[in-house]
Design brief:
The protein has two domains: about 1-130 and about 255-325, Bordetella uptake gene, domain 1 (D-Maltodextrin-Binding Protein, domain 2), CATH 3.40.190.150; about 135-245, D-Maltodextrin-Binding Protein, domain 2 (3-Layer(aba) Sandwich). Helix content is about 45%, strand content about 20%. It contains eleven helices and eleven strands. It has helices spanning about 1-20, 50-65, 80-85, 100-110, 145-155, 170-180, 195-205, 215-220, 270-285, 285-295, 305-325, and strands at about 40, 70-75, 95-100, 120-130, 135, 160-165, 185-190, 210, 225-230, 255-265, 295-300. The two termini are about 15 Å apart.
């Protein structure tokens, strides 16, 4: 399954790159000017970090384009419903998706079958951000660093419980890969979302979690939870004093991401205009500050860079799913 997804992604990469590269000689083409509202489809419910990011981008994009940009939440099937909707949409620039590492990397390995190809059926426009997860523990747990946690877990195999939002979620994958690389045995306790994980972690029913930074940052700052490390390869600009887990466990990395895509076949002038506006938006000090406030590390890549990045993510996340043993179907 994983090899097939990877091979399909690599086979489709030249077509993706050819499509986005066509946007380079934009000066020789008419500048696209939308004449009706756009929509950004969000793969998850309102109120979460993905939704918040989409609304920030939509507001700024509407101002720059001079058109309304509507956020359309289409939750369900781990994001597959939203992704299929956009994959089948008219490639005219009016229907976009805030793609995530779930919809365009994890799900191809997590589900036995998905109704779209995460590489072939989309036009990458610009990556918005990386989103680190935090390794947090209940303050009653007598550990103050990643190294101490590993030593504690090795001394008490099977006695530490970690929560996740369900099989294959970032919380689950980050913890399972951590346990695998550290050589420790922990118990996975799945929930229906991140909120009940945080609640049971605060109450002491769980000892640790690998939660998205935006979901636990307030509790960490209030001293209700203790942060030990971030799951990205490098430290987060929002918490520069907090080490990356990779500093203790070399090679460890679980980096969530999001970005704007459209259906396959977007015309070059549309890609060029949207990419220019998005990189300007993400590069502005105000937007970078707003994204950082919710625990995101802004990126703002070109279409070519984003296309290559997405293709490279397929085997990486397939390996994380394999290590975790997660499955949905």
């Amino acid at each position: 399954m994983y090899r097939r997804s990877f091979t399909q992604g690599l086979a489709a990469l030249p077509l993706m790159l050819a499509g986005v590269t066509a946007g380079r000689p934009a000066q020789a083409q008419a500048r696209w000017a939308p004449d009706k509202p756009l929509r950004i489809v969000v793969p998850f419910a309102p109120g979460g970090s993905t939704d918040v990011t989409a609304r920030l981008i939509a507001s700024a994009l509407a101002e720059r384009l001079g058109q309304t940009v509507v956020v359309d939440n289409r939750a369900g099937a781990g994001g597959n419903i939203a992704a299929e909707l956009v994959a089948r949409a008219e490639p005219d620039g009016y229907t976009l998706i805030l793609a995530t590492s779930s919809t365009h990397a994890t799900n191809a390995a997590l589900y036995k079958k998905i109704p779209f190809n995460p590489v072939r059926d989309f036009t990458p426009i610009s990556q918005i951000a990386f989103i680190p997860n935090l390794l947090v523990v209940n303050p009653e747990l007598p550990v103050n660093s990643v190294a101490e946690l590993v030593a504690y877990a090795k001394a008490k195999p099977g006695q530490l419980n970690y929560g996740s939002g369900g099989a294959g979620t970032s919380l689950h994958l980050a913890a399972a890969v951590f346990a695998h690389r550290a050589g420790i045995d922990m118990v996975h306790v799945p929930y229906r979302g991140g909120a009940p994980v945080a609640a049971d972690l605060l109450s002491g029913k769980l000892q640790l979690s690998f939660s998205p930074m935006v979901e636990v940052l307030q509790q960490v700052r209030a001293g209700k939870l203790r942060a030990l490390g971030v799951t990205t390869a490098r430290r987060s600009a929002l918490m520069p004093d907090l080490p990356a887990i990779a500093e203790v466990i070399p090679g460890y990395e679980v980096a969530l991401w999001n970005g704007i895509m459209g259906p396959a076949g977007l015309p070059a002038p549309v890609v060029a205009r949207l990419a220019a506006e998005l990189t300007a938006i993400i590069g502005s000090p105000e937007m970078r500050s707003r994204l950082a406030e919710q625990g995101s590390d802004p990126v703002g890549s070109t279409p070519q860079e984003f296309a290559a990045f997405v293709a490279a993510e397929q085997p990486k996340w397939a390996e994380l799913v394999r290590i975790s043993g997660a499955t949905v179907d």
